[in-house]
Amino acid sequence: MDKDTRNTSFEQWLSPINMRLLDARVKGLKLDYYTKKLTTESFLKLLLFAQLEEVESLHALSDCLFDDHLQAGVELDSISISQLSRRLNGLDPAVCKTLFLELVAQIHSKTRHTQSAMPLKIIDSSTLPLHLTNHKWAEFRKTKAGVKLHLRLVFMEKGVSYPEKAVIMSTAI
Question: Could you tell me which of 17, 40, 11, 12 has the C-alpha nearest to residue 27?
Answer without folding.
Answer: 40
